[in-house]
Design brief:
5-stranded mixed sheet; globular; 378 residues; Nucleotidyltransferase, domain 5; alpha/beta
Length: 378
């Protein structure tokens, strides 16, 4: 077997094959600090809340951090910022290490292959992703895995464009970054990222409305739709404005980065969007409308949102890991649905249903199973 791991600014998600299903384990990549007391620690432990004690403080980590932040009127803290480890957060390393351990779990055997997502260097910032990549690689190696980084945009191609011979434009709208990959028969023609994503939308909307960022994030994740029927003066209206601004910015950079010499004349490609930021209903239609107005060196045959945009990068990372594992150990590996005769993942790679788990207890590394994730409407 093998695993895929999406190391995202907002969520860390692992995926592995379980017979015909792909099972995902998810944890929010955030934490909140509360004052330590014996009673508080006992209650957290009994409630299976993921936490860690350090000196005189207790850090609630993962999915429960946002709930505690809202209760205690605090802002959550993030191990990652703008798609990579935060240099401003002194607790970034121990926190993200704990979350990765919970989400990935122990390897099924020593040296189990795991592909983990890593962003491309952003073209609109001097940020480097190398330290982030090597640190995550070290965590996974210490756990007993054989880790391999995979470009986040390419993971989208593996996950969603098998039926189009892995040819098309994959765009992962994450919290910290937006990653873009144009591939032709599974060969990346162009990969890059921009240092804006869902966090940028939340921050701008919070600044415009005077609301806390975590409150804006909660509103965005609770049934927000890009239907432009909400009042401009509210949080939903501000979110819609900055969503539209982000899409224009992404398209502007795609047009700038793709050279006419990079693509075949008359190339007509599908576009697939993924990531938690792409989850609101109406997102793909809005993106398609803006692409239609853009001047690109290739034609767009259509825009679709992944059935499960939150899990797409983890799924694509898993497809790549299983294909690599089969090539290396064909006599030991199980039949892999995601490999064709030329060694690239095949169209069967994303045929399994997605099931999600939520890593909760700091005592239970296998996590408790939650309800299966519902497919997003297209």
């Amino acid at each position: 077997m093998a695993k895929g791991l999406d190391v995202g600014t907002m969520n860390i998600i692992s995926g592995k094959q379980d017979d015909s299903d792909t099972v995902f384990v998810q944890q929010r990549n955030s934490f909140v600090e509360i004052e330590h007391s014996d009673m508080a620690e006992q209650m957290l432990s009994r409630s299976d809340v993921l936490h860690i004690r350090k000196d005189d403080n207790v850090y609630v980590v993962g999915d429960d951090a946002l709930n505690f932040a809202n209760i205690f009127k605090q802002e959550t803290r993030r191990p990652m910022q703008r798609g990579i480890l935060s240099s401003d957060e002194k607790s970034a390393i121990p926190m993200i290490k704990l979350i990765i351990e919970q989400v990935a779990g122990e390897p099924d055997y020593p040296g189990e292959r795991i592909h983990f997502s890593t962003p491309a260097d952003p073209i609109d910032s001097d940020l480097s992703t190398l330290y982030h990549q090597k640190t995550c690689e070290s965590f996974l190696s210490d756990m007993g895995y054989e880790p391999e980084p995979i470009n986040e945009g390419m993971a989208v191609i593996y996950s969603e464009l098998a039926d189009n011979n892995f040819t098309g434009l994959g765009v992962s709208f994450g919290a910290g970054m937006t990653n873009i990959c144009l591939a032709y028969y599974a060969v990346p023609v162009m990969t890059f990222s921009i240092a804006r994503g869902g966090d940028w939308i939340d921050e701008q909307a919070a600044r415009a409305t005077g609301k806390p960022v975590d409150k804006v994030t909660s509103i965005k994740e609770d049934g927000f739709e890009l239907d432009f029927k909400t009042d401009v003066g509210g949080v939903e209206g501000a979110l819609a404005i900055y969503y539209e601004n982000l899409l224009d910015y992404v398209i502007e950079n795609i047009a700038r980065e793709v050279d006419d010499e990079d693509v075949e004349e008359g190339l007509d490609v599908p576009v697939v969007v993924t990531g938690g930021t792409a989850s609101p209903d109406g997102f793909e239609k809005l993106f398609e409308d803006h692409l239609d107005d853009a001047h690109l060196p290739f034609s767009v045959s259509g825009v679709k949102r992944a059935d499960e945009p939150l899990y797409s990068v983890a799924r694509g990372s898993l497809v790549a890991a299983r294909s690599e594992e089969e090539r290396e150990k064909p006599q030991k590996s199980q039949p892999v649905k995601s490999s064709n005769s030329n060694g690239n993942p095949s169209s069967n790679g994303n045929s399994s249903k997605g099931k999600s788990k939520s890593a909760k207890s700091s005592k239970d590394k296998n996590s408790k199973k939650s309800k299966s994730s519902k497919k997003q409407s297209q």
